[in-house]
Specification:
GO terms for molecular function: DNA binding; transposase activity. Helix content is about 35%, strand content about 20%. Strand 9 and strand 10 form a beta hairpin. Helix 3 packs across helix 13 and helix 7 packs parallel to helix 13. The longest helix has 22 residues.
Length: about 400
């Protein structure tokens, strides 16, 4: 997708705007395996070169679209550092249709293996499962993107379904579909054993929860406050539970009489009460539908009904796990607002998937370089380094100042 207004800024693109590309050298060997994909006798832009140009786009705010990436390919410094030749706009557009995005998943997996867990509550070290959040986010599309079904012919969108490792602070996998695709169906197709799925209320289908259990995984999911259940046992609350706002902790059969057999074993439900302290600073909440869907309210007080199949963890720790689910929402903001993925580089599902995977790679690279979750400040420093305004020493000094000694990545 090309935006003429956005490309005006790049008309005066000069070679000294794009410098210090050697930071990508450590990553280039992983891309080499892509070089021969979809090869033919007259192909000048290979898959590894195309990915290098997309990564260059993410690390340089000067580049605002596909046309500005093509202009950058004419610079000798870019050609030398990335090992490419001058490419055309047509070749860039064709590449988004020809190359297979799934060939990037092994590269993403290798980067994931190199990431160490961040510093959290020590009790999480005893979890024998990978703590992941799963959610989806919309990427608004053009009316001509016929596959991106959403509201109507004039309002189209794609949806990114993301699995996010909460303890490492990194994305694990993503799928791109039309906006109308079911999030629960997508999760069902990717379920795997040994994971603790932290889910919002959109994933509360009892059939899905039972499939998670049968896959030898677990879940922490929000229910509607008026969810139906039959109490089996009421658990006594500790002082720590009460301090975190836990109202009750129960073992129940979940669902009405008609649906009670959908989940194959008893479930634990925990109700959490909290107060939005932002109102003390003058923040006014928008009117919202009550959790029981019976009336609208502006009340700063909330209750969350959380269901889990984990019977041995303290209720207070379950509430903390659900609060960590917000990390995936922060990543969506990073993905759209900082990396700029609200601007699409391709109109095909294939090309958009490549762009999404490249954004995940950028996030993983920053995570590995810094030992921390990517932030706007660190991203700005890396971009300034590429543009020649920051020296390598200044970038290293910034990174070293961010991470604790015991959290340094190799």
């Amino acid at each position: 997708m090309n935006n003429t207004n956005n490309d005006i800024r790049s008309n005066e693109l000069k070679e000294n705007n794009i410098k210090k590309l050697s930071i990508l050298r450590s990553f280039k060997p992983l891309l080499k395996r892509l070089h021969s994909h979809a090869d033919c006798h007259n192909r000048k832009l290979h898959y590894d070169q195309y990915i290098s140009l997309i990564l260059l786009y993410f690390f340089n705010p000067t580049l605002t679209g596909l046309r500005s990436i093509q202009r950058a390919s004419t610079l000798k410094s870019v050609q030398s550092k990335l090992g490419i030749k001058r490419t055309s706009l047509g070749s860039m557009s064709e590449a988004s249709h020809v190359f297979d995005p799934q060939l990037l998943t092994p590269i993403i997996s290798e980067l994931i293996q190199d990431a160490n867990p961040l510093k959290f509550d020590n009790r999480f070290n005893k979890l024998k499962m990978t703590l992941v959040a799963v959610d989806g986010t919309l990427l608004k599309a053009l009316p001509k993107m016929l596959w991106a079904l959403w509201l109507d012919n004039d309002h189209r969108a794609a949806k990114m379904h993301l699995e996010f490792d909460l303890l490492k602070g990194i994305p694990l996998k993503a799928q791109v579909t039309e906006a109308n695709a079911s999030e629960t169906t997508q999760l069902e197709s990717t379920l795997s054993p040994g994971k603790l799925y932290c889910l919002d209320a959109g994933y509360r289908e009892y059939r899905l929860l039972d499939k998670i259990i049968r896959k030898k995984s677990s879940f922490v999911v929000r229910l509607q406050d008026n969810a139906s259940y039959k109490i089996i046992e009421e658990h006594q609350l500790s002082d720590a539970d009460r301090k975190t706002g836990v109202d009750f902790d129960r073992t129940v059969w979940l669902g009405s009489k008609q649906k009670r057999n959908t989940i194959s074993k008893p479930i634990r439900i925990i109700q959490i009460h909290y107060y939005d302290e932002r109102v003390l600073c003058g923040y006014k909440r928008k009117s919202r539908v009550s959790s029981k869907k019976t009336f609208r309210t502006r009340s700063p007080e909330h209750t969350l009904l959380i269901a889990t199949d984990l019977m041995d963890l303290p209720a207070e720790l379950i509430s903390i796990i659900y609060r960590y689910r917000w990390e995936i929402e922060i990543f969506f903001r990073w993905f759209k607002c900082i990396l700029g993925c609200r601007h699409l580089l391709a109109i095909s599902r294939n090309g958009l998937t490549i762009q999404v995977y490249c954004a995940l790679i950028v996030s993983l690279l920053i995570r590995l370089w810094t030992g921390r979750k990517p932030t706007k400040h660190t991203f700005e420093m890396i971009c300034l380094y590429f543009q020649g305004w920051a020296t390598l020493e200044e970038l290293i000094e910034h990174i070293e100042g961010l991470k604790p000694d015991n959290q340094k990545q190799q």
